[in-house]
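step 3/5: co-fold with magnesium ion
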Amino acid sequence: MAKIRRLPQSVINKIAAGEVIERPASVVKELVENSLDAGATRIDVAVAKGGIEFIRVADNGCGIAFEDLELAVASHATSKIGDAEDLFHVRTLGFRGEALASIAEVSHLRLRSRTPDSDSGGEIYVEGGLVRSLAPCGCPVGTVVEVRQLFFNTPVRRKFLRSTTTELGHISETVAKLALAHFRVHFTLTHNDRPVLQLPAAAGLLERIAALYGQDLADSLIPVSSEDGPVRLYGYVAHPAFSRPNAKMQFLFLNGRAIRDRNLQHALNEAYRGLLTVGRQPVAFLVLEMPPEMVDVNVHPTKQEVRFLDSGRLYSQLLGTLRREFLSSDLSTRIPAPTPEQDGDSWRSPHDPEKVRATRQQIVEWAKGELQQRLAGNLATGSETAKAVSDFAHASLYSSETARPALRSGETIAPGEQRAEHKRDLATAVVELRSAGSGASDFGQTTESLGRKVEQGAHPELGLGSEAPAKVLQIHNRYLITESDEGLVVIDQHALHERILYEQLRQSLQDGPLTTQQLLIPEPVDLSPVEAALALENKELLAELGLSIEPFGGTTVLVHSYPAMLRHMSAGDLLRSVLAALAEGRSQPDRATLLDSILHSLACKAAIKAGERLAPEQVRALLEQSRQVLHSHHCPHGRPTMLVFSREELDRYFRRT
Ligand code: ADP
Ligand code: MG
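step 4/5: write tokens
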């Protein structure tokens, strides 16, 4: 039996470091948390080579007194708690007193600090846990910590580090989370001296969300809030249309700390049940505030998991709050809520034509107002009007998506159900207007005919007659079956969508470069050396397609923007498929043909796949869009998109004639 020995302090520190410091992003998290605990109002984070080479966090917080410098980097030394009882009232982010010691153990760490009541500051330099120097120095009030050579003495850990891009990704996610939890603090993040995040102090959470993830997302968010005794829950959840393929955009903050909690995540998913298709995840920014006594934060070294005193009650609070919000908002704020006299029974009798007409009138008025607003201040030229109408059509289509939740939640005929129906009318009308060449060159004409369409309650789908919406059936998750005046129509969903996308792309490319969607956080995409070279050689052509890129070191490029039309594809997928088409099409005789072949392959990539189950709303939207596209009978590859069996043909098959 081996003899039991006490471990040397440096080994203890290394073990502790192993728990807390997993990668450069962990260092950033601990240092920024210290800055926040120090009351900083501005925190600047600078990293080089994904933080592996260099990390600096500078703050304007309360600073550390010269005589405390050595203690600050010693293990289990903290100014934040004094005794065990304090553990249950933690109001700061840190309290374990090990972060600085752990970081210093596995790196070269330099800390410079000055308190407001001291004329000069001090600097301490630690290498692998050994204090090499400690001396007064001149510096501004606040603290600057610089970490170099991370994991220089723990080669195993160093080996586990991923590419610069991946590590930078973790770092910017870390900073983003802290910046959301502390939106009043001014944050910056730079990588290799290039700005990555610039977040001036925000007045509220929503403003910070917009700064990080874009105004579009922020605009789509639904505010939620509730109180249960001393527990306050507030924040924002996204409209189901803004769902994501993973849970990365789900944030939960507890008393200024980003946490993960399975139980609450489950409540969130439960609230969205039936509103999202399988495999999609909601977007949510939720803030919980409660007295520190109600939660134990000392269960996880990095404090990402906590234990609640009454997690069952929190579960109900979250689920209840979201459900209430979803039901009352009908998941759409775009249509005005019915006025009191229209509310009540009248909304429940959809067959009363007088009421329906009145409601339509109301929607027409609303639509006019909406359009007017969109055109306000503009001299409504033909193209501006066209654009406003088309944006508006898009928005209306979007909100027509909201029909689904309303239909599901209503046991009887919910007001939402009827509104949704009208929205559909409106959307189809607008789409038709738009496809009619947006030829209505003046505003009055546009709104007038829009109004008429809505009043007529036109249901133009594939020229399927004007009385009732078409019956559509999706079979084998691949074909859509519907009827037209001519007969039975079988549609290949992928081929049709591909055709639509191709036509849309081609049409907009005729008017110049594609409309782009700017990425607030440029996305690094790792490419093969061949792809990278190809990308940089063809920067201008890519820009024409709406893809603006920039070299980012090695074979990585940064994508700054991409075509708005294809925003549901990831920047990486998009860039790679364009490059593949580019490589393949390089032998094309001229630029136009090359571009065309790229559009073909993009459309194919971005289109709904065969085998994808479509929600009724998606089917409807697809059919509506197909009306706008001229040559929708054939996909861009020349395969047919739909087959029509005329009634005569059917009659003949069944020997009726
Ligand atoms: P903890 O945060 O758990 O107390 P740390 O090892 O992270 O432990 O920090 C040790 C101590 O150093 C803190 O308690 C605090 O007093 C001081 N300190 C660290 N960073 C800063 C900073 N940026 N500003 C002011 N004081 C700091
Ligand atoms: Mg700390």
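step 5/5: annotate
The pocket of magnesium ion (ligand 2) is lined by residues 30, 33-34, 94, 99 (CB under 6 Å).
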